[in-house]
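JOB MANIFEST
job_type = single_chain_structure
chain_count = 1
residues = 167
[input]
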Amino acid sequence: SSENSDRKKRNLTLFFLKKHLPILVWLSNYKIRNFLLSDIISGLTVGIMNIPQGMAYATIVSLNPIFGLYNSLFPLLVYGILGSSKHLAIGAIAIVSLLSGNVVNKVVSEHPIMYPIINVTDNSTEIIDVITDDKYRVVIASTLALLVGLFQFLMGFSGLGFVSVYF
């Protein structure tokens, strides 16, 4: 009876993990000899296009183009673990970049900031860093991306992914 209960719990846990981490499903069926070479070629092709595109879209958001490189890499890694479609292209897109840039520019214009971060000790005071406009823009864009990702993750985890069809 307890062995049967443990087996049910294990099966339920495995079902839950496979439902929310699709990599566990497709990785066990991945045939290295059949797919590895074509996947490497596909990855290089996507990377060649994704890197300059991400840098350009970072410029649209009013950020340093180096942040476009991060945008080119990390979403692909996350989608590799959490995504379920093998045909979906992941990366920056123009409309999201324009909307994000609009939010960043609006927040910067409505709430300007430039103040020093000061380290005060018993015998000295020193300016460690100054938050400039560029750093402030990165903080705003990162916060926006993190919040959107958090909402999407929570909606997907709670089974509300169908709501995204209406957005």
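[summary]
The longest strand covers residues 125-130.
Residues 25 and 41 are 23 Å apart (CA to CA).
exit_status = 0
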